[in-house]
């Protein structure tokens, strides 16, 4: 089997698994954060777990950029820059700034996320910097790149801003959960997840690539059911929780 065959099978396999994950997570919320519970085997400190789970994404894609054949391509450099903008923050800044370090994450979750992030970094990095077309300087003025970059950056701002709001909320209750209000929290319980899904839809558009599209589908399959679980938890926990607030899609769901 050639590497191209392996790449295609892996990509199609990931796409096929995404709906299964979506359905599974509607019934069983992933046991970390507020949904952590006993019975999921050995656990790891949550901050260490975050760094371990996420580090393969920025490191793997950067490595594939260096090993690839377009290190001086403006489009490839732009893709790498945007990817790293998100992932250096997610893998190294977010975990070290998070509050409530006493929580632990099951090793099973860490192992699953590691496999996912390694495979995803391989699919994205190999396609953008070796297998896919070199889109050249002109691509940076293409409406698909410009619209995708606007979506990506808009989603990133929403995601980071919403995570920061939770971090400030945690300052008042070091290991507990408050009721987030204000900004996009007026509309949805999980604007951080909404921003994340928008970001990766933007990345799929700006790279116009199948691996990035599969990643956007995966992100939605993972975060939409989790937003629902968070939303139901908020409604159970705060009796005065705003009835008009939705889980992740404003005015809809
Ligand atoms: N691309 C993907 O598929 C993917 C997958 C997972 C996560 N992510 C991103 O990673 C980030 C973190 O994800 P997450 O699942 O941990 O998000 P989360 O459940 O919203 O929690 C984010 C942080 O805020 C704390 N927190 C949550 N709700 C709070 C509240 N009501 N009061 C006080 N503190 C609160 C959490 O503490 P605890 O940890 O103690 O609950 C955690 O440190 C998000 O930006 C998310 O979009 C992306």
Describe the structure.
With 253 residues, this protein is mainly alpha-helical. The protein has two domains: 43-135, no CATH class; 142-253, no CATH class. The protein has eight helices and two strands. It has helices at 3-27, 46-54, 56-67, 74-97, 107-131, 143-172, 191-207, 210-237, and strands spanning 43-45, 104-106. A two-stranded antiparallel ribbon has the order 1-2. Helix 3 runs antiparallel to helix 4, helix 3 (56-67) runs parallel beside helix 5 (107-131) and helix 6 (143-172) packs antiparallel against helix 7. The longest helix is centred in the middle third of the chain and has 30 residues, at 143-172. It is globular, with a radius of gyration of 19 Å. The protein binds NADP nicotinamide-adenine-dinucleotide phosphate (NAP). NADP nicotinamide-adenine-dinucleotide phosphate (NAP) is lined by residues 33-34, 98, 100, 103, 159, 163, 166, 169-170, 177-178, 180, 192-193, 196, 219, 222-223.
Task: Kindly summarize this structure in a few lines.
This protein has 253 residues and is mainly alpha-helical. It is built from eight helices and two strands; from the N terminus they run αβαααβαααα. It has a two-stranded antiparallel sheet with strand order 1-2.
Annotate the secondary structure layout:
Blueprint (H helix, E strand, L loop, with lengths): L2 H25 L15 E3 H9 L1 H12 L6 H24 L6 E3 H25 L11 H30 L18 H17 L2 H28 L16
Antiparallel strand pairs: 1-2
Helix pairs in contact: 1-8, 2-4, 2-5, 3-4, 3-5, 6-7, 7-8
NADP nicotinamide-adenine-dinucleotide phosphate (NAP) binds next to helix 6, helix 7 and helix 8.
């Amino acid at each position: 089997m050639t590497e191209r065959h392996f790449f295609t099978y892996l990509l199609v396999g990931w796409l096929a698994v995404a709906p299964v994950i979506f359905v599974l997570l509607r019934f069983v919320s992933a046991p970390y954060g507020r949904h952590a519970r006993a019975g999921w085997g050995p656990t790891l400190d949550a901050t260490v777990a975050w760094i371990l789970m996420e580090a393969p994404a920025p490191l793997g894609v950067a490595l594939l950029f260096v090993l690839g054949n377009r290190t001086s391509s403006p489009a490839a450099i732009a893709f790498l820059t945007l990817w790293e903008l998100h992932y250096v923050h997610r893998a190294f800044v977010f975990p070290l700034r998070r509050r409530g370090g006493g929580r632990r994450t099951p090793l099973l979750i860490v192992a699953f996320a590691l496999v996912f992030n390694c495979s995803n970094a391989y699919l994205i990095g190999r396609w953008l910097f070796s297998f896919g077309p070199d889109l050249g300087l002109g691509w940076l003025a293409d409406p698909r790149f410009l619209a995708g970059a606007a979506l990506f950056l808009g989603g990133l701002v929403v995601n980071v801003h919403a995570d920061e709001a939770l971090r400030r909320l945690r300052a008042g209750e070091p290991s507990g959960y408050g009721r987030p209000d204000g900004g996009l929290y007026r509309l949805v319980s999980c604007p951080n997840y909404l921003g994340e899904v928008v970001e990766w839809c933007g990345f799929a558009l700006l790279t116009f690539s199948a691996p990035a599209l599969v990643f956007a589908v995966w992100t939605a399959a993972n975060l939409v059911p989790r937003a629902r679980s968070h939303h139901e938890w908020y409604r159970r926990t705060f009796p005065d929780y705003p009835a008009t607030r939705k889980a992740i899609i404003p005015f809809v769901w």
